[in-house]
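Late entry, written up from scratch paper. The run itself happened at the end of the previous shift, but nothing got recorded in the book at the time, so transcribing now.
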Amino acid sequence: MRLESPSLDLRDDPRRWWALAVLCLALCAIVIDNTILNVALPTLRRGLHASETDLQWVTTAYALTLSGLLLPLGVLGDRFGRRGLLLAGLLLFGSASAVAAFTSSPLQLALARGAMGVGGAASMPATLSILGNIFHEHERARAIAIWASVAGVAAALGPIVGGVLLSRFWWGSVFLVNVPVVLLTVVAVVVLLPSSRAPIARAIDGLGSLLWAGSLALLLFAIIEGPVRGWRSPSVVAAFLLSGALMALFAREERRARAPMLAPSVARDPRMQAGTITVIGMFFAAFGTQFTLTQWIQGPRGHSALFTGLCFMPMALTTVVTTMCNPPVARRLGPRVVVAGGLATMSLALVLVGWAVSSGRLALVAVALVALGAGQGIAIPSAVELIMISVPPEQAGSAAGVNETVVEAGGAVGIAVLGSLLAAGAGFSAPVLVAAAAVLLTSAVVFRILARQSVAERNS
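Output as recorded:
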């Protein structure tokens, strides 16, 4: 199925489902790493003598480079070929994983994680953009649901695999395990995956990419370093101000650029707005909460990394089940009800998690996490589809880049904010309740956006 011409239509080729399997395998290689790392944080703290701030940087270094490069690399894949970009990204990700396994300081590990983020930034949008080009619209929702559910399975396996590895080997094994997974994926991509690219090449907005990445890096620096240096320290205040200035320049650049990373008409599309806001709020809460709970379970509760992984498994499996149930429910109820309802379910579950943590009830935390997984599974596929259908197929790489950018940016900010609350001594329940409030606000905003769109469609 190695098709070199971008004009060939794969949407009627029965082998497109094999291509989907390869895309899901590539996605697994990236997703597993994130969830493995979560359960390894307390072990990393001891092995590298890392502080809470060090752990935040090790975690967010990956998300920072990933979110900063996803949009331009998504456009690069549209222009020069998505399969080639996927292969390059996987090879870099695997090589950086091998380096990360043998680092000896938090700084070295953060730098290696940053290199892994570059590889992930090349790989992740390619999987979703290829998917968007090899399935007809009536099949796309099902394909996206499968793609998202496989990510859920990988998320479930990651903590368990991490726990098993940490019970038998040193902390570097959670990175070294990526290497054979990546090698298997590379072989599958070469043998089974079609080549595709946009028929009309688009330019890359280099200045916009630099402004976006710089703004996000400064924001994360300010949030992470605030509890350590002081919120009024010159470096933290300057970082906040410069981040805001760069973001304003980024918005101006995108309006004026000949080849913006995202066309203004697409940015104004209510479907794109609703999808991106949903993903940001959801992963702000999900990544930040997992960062918090991992340390609570292994710290005050005194359990092992493997036990921690098992605590998160029911949530991930529930996400998989509800994700597969999304397409028929979304067709019947519409994205407005499904997305807002899923987010509201997440918010209620997080309130229960926060209360259970404050009262020390681990069993109740596990039950509440199942409800959290159900809310995620309900909302994720519809949010992703809203983003993907807001652009024409030839811009699928850009849309996929947007999706993965807001996933990682939302997650990075979530870890930074909730981790800073931990570092400031707020306890373990307060960060979770902040996440609950953020998701509830997201639900209200998204419901309003999609309600306005529905009214406009009826009046047109």
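DSSP finds 16 helices and no strands in the chain.
(Scratch paper discarded after transcription.)
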